[in-house]
Amino acid sequence: MCIRDRFLAFISKLLKPQNILELGTFTGYSSLCLAEGLSENGKLLTLEVNDELESFHEKFIKSSNFSEKIDIQYGDAAEILPSLEKETFDLIFIDANKKMYPQYFELCTRVLKKGGVLLADNVLWWDKVVNEEINDPETLALRKFNQLINESDQFSSFILPLRDGITIAQKK
Ligand SMILES: C[S@@+](CC[C@H](N)C(=O)[O-])C[C@H]1O[C@@H](n2cnc3c(N)ncnc32)[C@H](O)[C@@H]1O
Question: Which of the residues in the chain have pLDDT under 50?
């Protein structure tokens, strides 16, 4: 159990969201933590590019108490997100391809409800984002993401220095 995962569950329990969107499922551990706070008829949609993880998902998600509440969609999150524009979410957790965070920000803003909460993991990238000598593609993209959200007049946001940084932002 890690503190980041308890934090995700804690925020979700505070919000009691009806609809959660997650970008980057991996084994499904964070999906299960976020699902702990879903309202009675709430749903979580998680997007994962690697369909070879399906056997993990069968084991961990499909056999869990939340199997009916969690839908997994396989594919590139940046390609799936525009097709979700008729859906809106109360809580979004970004944890997929770090180089895509600026695009995820734009795409997620469109499907996040007013008053909804955006969480994004790894935004300090083990402090590389604050080291001006480090300019690899992931670090540059995360720096850009932090700048976009910080300068956006649609969000109130801050970075929690939990593990390697989590953004918590509320859409106005
Ligand atoms: C850090 S892991 C997610 C961990 C998970 N959220 C957790 O905390 O348990 C990142 C995941 O994002 C997936 N991923 C990477 N690029 C992606 C993309 N373009 N679209 C969707 N998922 C992607 C990876 O395959 C990987 O499983």
Answer: none
